[in-house]
Design brief:
By secondary structure, the protein is α/β, with parallel strands linked by helices. The chain is built from 16 helices and 6 strands.
C-alpha cells in the first residue's frame, strides 16, 4: 500500500505542478466564456445597417414597415422596372415590391437583391406585411388588434413529482440540462484522462524507465497508482473549472440584468412620445428584455428543484467509476504497444461502448424510465453516462445501488484483465502485438 501511495503522489504532483496544467485549468473556462461572449457581441453589434427600398403599389404599407438598428426602409414612387435597374447603384441593399392586389395575392411580394438577402430580413418583411394585412381584415370585421393582444395569454406549467404521497417541485428542463451536461463531462473525462494514462505508460515503457521502477514495485501496484493519480488530477481540474465557471456566470448574470433594466428604463421614458405602432414594437422589445432578465432566476429555480446532493455524489462516483474502468484498459493498451500508431486497433473497440452510450443518452433523455434507459444504466460500460442522464429525473435508490455494484464489479474485472496484460506487455519490446497475442498474455503464469 505504501508503494501505491508513493506512485499516486508522484503521478499527481508531477502533473499538477506542470505549467501546462495550471494554464489549461485557468484558461479553458475563460477562453470558452470569452469565445461565446465574443460571438454574441459580434452578432449583436457587428452587423451593418441595411438599406431597403420599398415600392408599394397597394398603398397599404407606406410607413408601416418600421426601421430598426439593422434595417432602414425608404419608400419609392418609381415604377418597378426603373427601380430594378438602379437600386444597386444607389447603395440600396434590397428592393421590396408589394403588388396592388396583395390582399388577394399574398404570394405576390418580390424581394430583389444583388447577392441575395438573409433569411432574417425575409422573415421581417413577410411578418410586417402579414401583420398589416391582418389589421386590415380585423378592421373590416370590426375587431381591434388591441382586443386580440389583450386576449393573448402565455400558459406556463409547473411539474410536480409525487413519491409516497409527498409532492415535490421538479424541473424537466433543468433535469434535461444537468443530466446531459453531467454525461458529457464524464464522456470527455474518460477520453482525456484515459489517454493520459495510456501515454504515461507508453512513455515509461519506451524510455525503459519502467525497468527500474518495477525492480521496486509490482507491475499491478504501478498501474493502480498511475490510474488513481491521474484520476485525482482530473478531479482537481474539474473542481477548479466548476468554481471558475460558476463565478463567471454569476458576474455575467448580474451584468446582463443591470443592462436590461437600464434599457427598459430608457425605453419606458421615451415610449409616450412614439406613435402607436412604434410604441407596440417597443413594448414587445421590453417584454423580450424582461424575459431575458428572468433567465438566470429561472435557471436557479430549476437547479433548486433538482436532487442536488444526489446528483453531485453520483457524479463523483460515476466519474471515478467510469474513469477507473476505462483507464485500466487504456493502461493495458499502453503497456502492450511500442508507439502511438499501434494503439488504433486496440483503442477503437475499447471506446465503442462509451461512444454508443453517449449516442443512446439522446434517446434516454426522452424516456429516462424506459427499458433502454434501465438496462443501459446497469451495464458497467455504459452506466456512467446513462445513469447520470437519468438521476436528475429521479431514480429509485435500489436502481442506483445495483448500478453502482455492477460498476464496481466491472472495474474489478477490467482491472484484473488489464493487470494480466500489463505485467507481460510492460517489458515486451519490438514485437507487433495482436488480439490473439493479448489473449495469450491473460493466461501466462508469473
Amino acid at each position: 500500500m505504501k508503494n501505491i501511495l508513493l506512485i499516486i503522489q508522484r503521478e499527481y504532483l508531477t502533473r499538477v505542478k506542470k505549467k501546462s496544467f495550471i494554464l489549461l485549468t485557468l484558461l479553458v473556462p475563460l477562453l470558452v466564456f470569452g469565445m461565446y461572449a465574443g460571438i454574441i457581441y459580434a452578432a449583436l453589434s457587428g452587423t451593418d445597417q441595411k438599406s431597403i427600398a420599398v415600392i408599394d403599389d397597394s398603398g397599404l404599407f407606406i410607413e408601416k414597415i418600421e426601421d430598426n438598428k439593422e434595417y432602414t426602409f425608404t419608400y419609392s414612387t418609381e415604377d418597378l422596372e426603373t427601380a430594378k435597374g438602379g437600386f444597386v447603384e444607389e447603395g440600396t441593399d434590397a428592393l421590396v415590391y408589394i403588388p396592388e392586389d396583395i390582399l388577394d395575392n399574398s404570394k405576390g411580394v418580390k424581394i430583389y437583391a444583388e447577392n441575395g438577402i438573409s433569411f432574417e430580413l425575409q422573415q421581417k418583411i413577410e411578418s410586417s406585411i402579414e401583420r398589416e394585412i391582418e389589421n386590415i381584415k380585423l378592421s373590416e370585421a370590426g375587431i381591434a388588434r388591441s382586443v386580440l393582444r389583450d386576449a393573448k395569454i402565455n400558459v406556463g406549467s409547473e411539474t410536480i413529482s409525487i413519491k409516497e404521497g409527498e409532492e415535490k417541485t421538479s424541473s424537466s428542463g433543468g433535469a434535461t440540462a444537468i443530466g446531459f451536461i453531467s454525461a458529457f463531462l464524464i464522456y470527455m473525462s474518460i477520453f482525456i484522462y484515459g489517454v493520459q494514462v495510456m501515454r504515461g505508460v507508453m512513455e515509461e515503457k519506451t524510455s525503459r524507465i519502467v525497468e527500474v521502477i518495477i525492480s521496486s514495485v509490482k507491475p499491478f501496484q504501478l498501474m493502480i497508482g498511475k490510474i488513481i493519480g491521474v484520476a485525482l488530477v482530473g478531479l482537481t481540474q474539474f473542481t477548479l473549472w466548476i468554481v471558475l465557471v460558476l463565478s463567471l456566470m454569476t458576474v455575467a448574470g448580474k451584468f446582463m440584468t443591470s443592462k436590461m433594466d437600464n434599457v427598459s428604463t430608457v425605453a419606458t421614458s421615451q415610449m409616450q412620445s412614439l406613435p402607436p405602432e412604434a410604441r407596440e414594437a417597443v413594448e414587445q422589445q421590453m417584454e423580450g428584455n424582461a424575459a431575458a432578465s428572468q433567465v438566470m432566476p429561472d435557471v436557479m429555480n430549476a437547479i433548486n428543484a433538482l436532487p442536488i446532493a444526489t446528483i453531485i455524489i453520483s457524479f463523483l462516483f460515476y466519474f471515478l467509476g467510469g474513469y477507473l474502468l476505462y483507464s485500466s484498459l487504456f493502461g493495458a493498451v499502453g503497456s502492450a504497444v511500442d508507439g502511438e500508431t499501434d494503439t488504433q486497433q486496440f483503442v477503437l473497440p475499447i471506446t465503442l461502448p462509451i461512444i454508443a452510450a453517449f449516442i443512446m443518452a439522446q434517446f434516454v433523455i426522452k424516456d429516462p424510465h424506459g427499458p433502454l434507459a434501465f438496462w443501459g444504466s446497469m451495464i458497467p460500460f455504459t452506466s456512467p453516462i446513462l445513469m447520470m442522464v437519468r438521476i436528475p429525473f429521479g431514480v429509485p435508490v435500489w436502481e442506483i445501488v445495483l448500478s453502482i455494484s455492477l460498476l464496481i464489479g466491472g472495474f474489478i474485472f477490467t482491472t484484473w484483465i488489464a493487470s494480466r496484460i500489463y505485467r507481460v506487455g510492460i517489458l515486451m519490446y519490438g514485437k507487433k502485438v495482436t488480439w490473439k497475442e493479448l489473449s495469450k498474455w491473460l493466461f501466462y503464469k508469473a
